[in-house]
């Protein structure tokens, strides 16, 4: 996927003066971490327990960004309109929690990116719609928790993305100006949240992207095909 600059105001300021960026915030699933194998694994455990065949990862992977609702819709054709949705959702989340770090890994180049930001003195944090019940232990397992200045879950504030509240809370905890933050995510809701918070936005083309509108239509400041693309824009690679 080609890199595309889509909001010339912020991205030009960024490229002309990397110091204009005070901090980075990252989504977790599909941006920093490839958690699809464990989420799909939980969904397939449910299928197998019901006498159904496991689905290929390729079918379930794009729905990771849509959370339990999206996974259950594809795996079991169950939606919130069904009377047993909450019970099935609870089963899915319990199964996922039991295997949360079994196969989940950081994406290629993520450690390189985070190490370079650390060396450059640029702080970073995590804002995810994953509930703290899952986000905190997973970031610890991946070695991210202690390095991030904030880990904000989907239930840390009263609102989840695309509302800007979680991003603004992260900026507050890091003592950084939201207008000098860049939020990086692989779902259109990430871009909507970042823009609503007044932050620069990067669409992570290496992530899950969902089955919705093409990434180029999300109105992100920049679309990148790899994590190290951020370092290139900052002149660090």
From TrEMBL:
Reaction(s) catalyzed by this protein? 2-phosphoglycolate + H2O = glycolate + phosphate
Q: Which residues participate directly in catalysis? A: 27 (nucleophile)
Q: Which InterPro entries match?
A: HAD-like_hydrolase_sf (IPR050155), HAD-like_sf (IPR036412), HAD-SF_hydro_IA (IPR006439), HAD_2 (IPR041492), HAD_sf (IPR023214), PGP-like_dom2 (IPR023198), PGPase_prok (IPR037512)
Q: Which domain of life is it from?
A: Bacteria
Molecular function per GO: phosphoglycolate phosphatase activity
* Cross-referenced Pfam families: HAD_2 (PF13419)
Q: In which pathway does it act?
A: Organic acid metabolism; glycolate biosynthesis; glycolate from 2-phosphoglycolate: step 1/1
Recorded coiled-coil stretches: none
EC number(s) recorded for this UniProt protein: 3.1.3.18
Q: Where are the transmembrane segments?
A: none
| Residues that hold Mg(2+) according to the record | 27, 29, 186
This protein's record includes keyword Secreted: no
Q: Which family does it belong to?
A: Belongs to the HAD-like hydrolase superfamily. CbbY/CbbZ/Gph/YieH family.
Q: What is this protein called?
A: Phosphoglycolate phosphatase
Native source species: Roseateles albus
The coding gene here is gph
């Amino acid at each position: 996927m080609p890199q595309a600059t889509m909001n010339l105001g912020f991205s030009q300021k960024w490229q002309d003066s990397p110091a204009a960026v005070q901090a980075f915030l990252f989504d977790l699933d599909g941006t920093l971490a490839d958690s699809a194998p464990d989420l799909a694994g939980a969904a397939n455990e449910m299928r197998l327990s019901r006498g159904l065949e496991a689905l290929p990862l390729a079918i379930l992977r794009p729905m990771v960004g849509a959370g339990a609702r999206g996974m259950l819709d594809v795996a079991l054709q169950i939606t919130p309109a069904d009377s047993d949705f909450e019970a099935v959702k609870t089963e899915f989340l319990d199964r996922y929690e039991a295997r949360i770090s079994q196969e989940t890994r950081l994406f290629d180049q993520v450690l390189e990116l985070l190490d370079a930001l650390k060396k450059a003195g640029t702080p970073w944090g995590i804002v995810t719609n994953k509930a703290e019940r899952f986000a905190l232990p997973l970031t610890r397992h991946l070695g991210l928790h202690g390095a991030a200045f904030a880990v904000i879950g989907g239930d840390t504030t009263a609102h989840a993305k695309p509302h800007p509240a979680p991003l603004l809370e992260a900026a507050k905890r890091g003592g950084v100006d939201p207008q000098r933050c860049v939020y990086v995510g692989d779902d259109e809701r990430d871009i909507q949240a970042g823009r609503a918070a007044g932050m620069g936005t990067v669409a992570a083309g290496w992530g899950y992207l969902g089955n919705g509108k093409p990434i180029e239509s999300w109105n992100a400041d920049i679309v990148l095909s790899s994590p190290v693309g951020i370092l290139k824009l900052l002149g660090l690679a």
